[in-house]
Design a protein that fits this description.
- The chain is α/β, with parallel strands linked by helices and about 325 residues long.
- Helices cover about 35% and strands about 15% of the residues.
- Strands 8-7-6-9-10-11-12 form a seven-stranded parallel beta sheet, with helices on both faces. The protein has a five-stranded parallel beta sheet with strand order 2-1-3-4-5.
């Protein structure tokens, strides 16, 4: 990745970059700090709030890490020189895009850096659920373990049908991985992929989501959260699925109706679910989903690898520097 140097193009002191914190639960990673400091003067929210008068004019960009800092009207009004907000992921549902745009501020996401690691997570969940790996682990380490029951059976992945809902960068990389497992691939998307792209992974387009749901052994949800996709998979959609089917969600928790999912899992409407996302995150410790044996839940691990997180920061820096220099932003996101 080639990254322009703001000092070369613009001269003068480094532009101020607002981040939530360094380290901690919602802070940028310590290992990314030296790279960021090559291009920006880093300002944490704590430093900004302690000295607003001095810091507010210095800040020209914000880097959101795990949705923090929270962008609201008060913050936007206090930053007169803010030009761009870069997000550390694809989903922008935590931002009021129209509000941000009304202040003349550009927005960008990291759609390319996250695609491979998120696709890997989706396939890992599919395989773990199919072969009941979490249940098997607990059986293997139990104090009374002597042998594995003969009827401890999982679902076959090879030759099974995978339905991908959302065929963007991540969805397509999932299809590439699924092809290696000799899966039959169906997909539903707002726009159909090019014929050569379909042929490359052996994917068949389903214009209607119902057709995909009725045929798939595994349904993987890979869409952005929008008003149109909120509770996209609800009671009706689950009842269309096979009773032997597994639902995998690596998009956003609110894309699936969780109450309907609990009922579907308890009553055998579907076989199992594997979720990297829930709402809220984390779930309350007494939530029913945490008690069901036919569910695997992971704590939003989608992009959490050393390489992916560093690539996300590189992509964010590239987007920010383009915006500050008046150049086209590679991953600009426009309000719909």
């Amino acid at each position: 990745m080639v990254i322009c140097d703001f000092r070369i193009m613009g001269g003068g002191e480094l532009p101020g970059l607002l981040v939530n914190e360094i380290g901690g639960i919602h802070g940028i990673l310590h290992g990314h700090v030296p790279f960021l400091k090559k291009h920006f003067y880093l300002i944490t929210m704590k430093e900004f709030l302690e000295n607003k008068k001095h810091m507010s004019k210095k800040i020209q960009a914000i880097y959101l890490w795990w949705h923090k800092p929270i962008i609201d009207q008060e913050l936007l009004q206090s930053l007169p020189n803010l030009k761009v907000i870069a997000n550390s992921g694809v989903g922008m549902d935590h931002l009021d895009l129209k509000l941000v745009a009304s202040f003349g501020v550009k927005m960008a996401n990291a759609r390319y850096a996250v695609s491979s690691s998120t696709a890997d997570t989706g396939m890992a969940l599919l395989l773990a659920s199919a072969r009941r790996l979490v249940e098997g682990y607990h059986v293997a380490i139990s104090s009374g373990m002597e042998y594995c029951e003969a009827d401890f059976l999982g679902a076959e992945v090879t030759g099974a049908t995978l339905g991908i809902i959302g065929m963007g960068n991540i969805g397509y990389k999932i299809a590439l991985r699924a092809k290696a497992f000799e899966m039959n691939i169906l997909y539903h998307n707002r726009r159909r992929r090019k014929e050569q792209e379909e042929q490359a992974v052996g994917a068949t387009y389903c214009e209607k989501i119902d057709n995909l749901l009725q045929q798939a052994d595994f349904v993987m949800v890979v869409v952005s959260l929008t008003p149109q996709t909120r509770k996209l998979i609800g009671k009706r959609e689950m009842e269309l699925m096979k009773p032997t089917a597994t639902l995998i969600n690596i998009s956003r928790g609110a894309v699936v109706d969780q109450e309907a999912l609990v009922t579907a899992l308890q009553t055998g409407v579907i076989r199992a679910a594997a979720l990297d996302v829930t709402y809220p995150e984390p779930l309350p410790r007494d939530h029913t989903l945490l008690k069901l044996k036919n569910v695997i839940i992971t704590p939003h691990l989608g992009i959490k690898t050393d390489k992916a997180t560093y690539m996300i920061t590189e992509e964010a820096v590239e987007n920010i520097l383009a915006a500050l220099n008046g150049l086209p932003i590679p991953n600009e996101v426009l309000p719909s």
